[in-house]
Amino acid sequence: MEEILTVEGLSKTFTLSRKQQKIERTAARRKTAVDNLSFSAYRGEIFGLLGPNGAGKTTTLRMLATLIRPDSGDALLDGCSVVNSPAEVRGKIGFLTSELKLEDFFTPNYLFDFFSRLHGVDPDTCAQRKAAMFSRFGIDRFAEVKVANLSTGMKQKLSLVISLVHNPEVIIFDEPTNGLDVLTARTVTDYLQELRAEGKTIILSTHIFSLVERLCDRVGVIIDGRLVACGPLAEVCDGLSIEDRFFEMYKEVKGGDE
Amino acid sequence: MKKGNTWTIISKEFARFFGDRQLFFTTVIMPGLLIYLIYSLMGNGIQKMVTEGQDEVVTLTVENMPQSMAPMLNAIDSSLVVVEQPFGDDDIARLEEKDINAVLLRFPEGFDQLAIPEPGQPVPNVEIYYNSTNNASSRVYYTLNAMLGNYNRPFTVNVPQSEEQRFDQASEESIGAMIWSKLLPMLIIMMLFSGVMAIAPSSIAGEKERGTIATLLVTPMRRNELALGKIISLSGIALLSGISSFIGIALSLPKMVSGEGVDYADLGFHYTTSDYFALLLVIFASVLIMASAVSILSALAKDVKNAGTMVTPFMLVVMLAGLLPMFQNGAAESLLVYLIPFYNSIEVMVAVFAHEMQWMPVIVTVASNVVYTGIAVWVLTRMFNSEKVMFSR
Hints:
The complex is a heterodimer of chains A (258) and B (393).
Chain A: E1 3-15, H1 18-24, E2 30-42, E3 46-50, H2 57-64, E4 72-77, E5 80-81, H3 86-92, E6 93-97, H4 108-118, H5 123-137, H6 152-163, E7 170-174, H7 182-197, E8 201-206, H8 209-215, E9 218-223, E10 226-232, H9 233-237, H10 242-254
Parallel strand pairs in A: 3-8, 3-9, 6-7, 7-8
Antiparallel strand pairs in A: 1-2, 1-4, 4-5, 9-10
Chain B: H1 3-19, H2 21-51, E1 58-63, H3 70-74, E2 80-84, H4 89-94, E3 102-106, E4 127-129, H5 135-149, H6 172-210, H7 212-217, H8 223-257, H9 273-300, H10 304-323, H11 343-353, H12 359-385, H13 387-391
Parallel strand pairs in B: 1-2, 1-3
Antiparallel strand pairs in B: 3-4
Helix pairs in contact in B: 1-8, 2-6, 2-8, 6-8, 6-9, 6-10, 6-11, 8-9, 8-12, 9-10, 9-11, 9-12
């Protein structure tokens, strides 16, 4: 298998504000969000980062998407460094978070064209891809309807579509089914499988065990910013369900404190 | 820097603005329209107050008319009918009726024979009864008051001996210019800032709030293209709002400051092409720096509401700077003053409206504002790169 993503010793520390110190109930001014993370992902697979809230999954994905810069370590994405060549990396990835809310005022047509221009997609390719993706997700009927007037499910599908206007090789997806209704969640997971079949690589973060079991070829378990297990799903599960295996690892790391 | 991405951002912001009829109306059409309507109504109201009652006939009833006064009272103006007869409390009570154009004037008996009293002795009292809510009655009262106030004094002050005689040697043009230079810079700055305020706080904070900032930042577009695109588009929209307000002011000022038939040019409102060009340059430079500052505050804010809260104190500081010309005479002379952002624009406007415009302060102002905008683009670019600014909640 061709390695498309190599993460080596990725670390990130944040300075906590006084407010955050109170929330986290700590006197420490700094918090290590990601601690010396190393893993690989291969072309044509779905790699899942599994962990509880605050484990460092989103920070890791943001570093891979070049949105934030690691304190140390690096990640090579299709040969391009997220530290030294962020612009090249951005041309190869699609990044999507479930928190995305598109601007109400614009239509799907406008948004697709706008993000295509920013990604440097030529108009002909943009038109072809738009037609295909709008048709795939049933957006074509609403192409000229403002986002404000779309259903929640349609808005979520549109968010996915505009993140992929440039047909990226690697798709980084933070909590892909968070907040989605069941029908849209199914549409999204089905599409991720289609992308895998096309040879795309998907790196996703989640805390949902069933999603990992259903979608992921390989999984990395992240707790308190550290990668405690990484490998093919069956290998990591070691004969247990992913849920049971996760709680075993969690107890080992936290010393039985859930 | 690739021009394309900056233009893509500008065109998106413009599409957002011009496509939203409500936003366009409230930001561009309404300020000018409101200013025109409010100032015109105020001007008409003031003019009406001043002129109303001027031609109405007023009956002046005089009790104990002194011989020395009769010719003066009869000569006040043709709309005054002087009746010599005593009046009582009933007549005074009737004045309460607002639509009665009347004034009652009572002299002490033997007014002409009264000697000037020694200090500490009672002073003869002349009574004038009138109704201040009736413009005609009020007008006659003030005339009588002024006339009697000067009666029997050994001298008068500044009573013109002919229509041409003037005591204030300032030309009408320079008086007008002084008024404009004190009023207009503040108004223009307020209008421009309100244009920026209408859209800028939501421009970047809105992207953060919706999470679209991450989608923008993972495109190959460079951060400085995004920063420049945002600042230029916001400046353009704010400029439109400022122009709308300026048109509103320009159309309504004649009604505000003078009655019909008054030559506007006599009030100093005749500026050269150079003046207008300098004004345009400095307005553009002001808008750039305002949009830059508000964009930075908007990027610092967590959400749109927070951005509004952060921008308000800043707006008050700029407004205060706009008030400073009220307390100074002419524009600043030191070129260093023209390096102070915001205040430099106000000073140039003061100079333009006071007919004292010189090119060097204009050049320093525009150049420094462009440099400050460049710094702001750099700061905003750094902010787009900062996870603490972009993603902290």
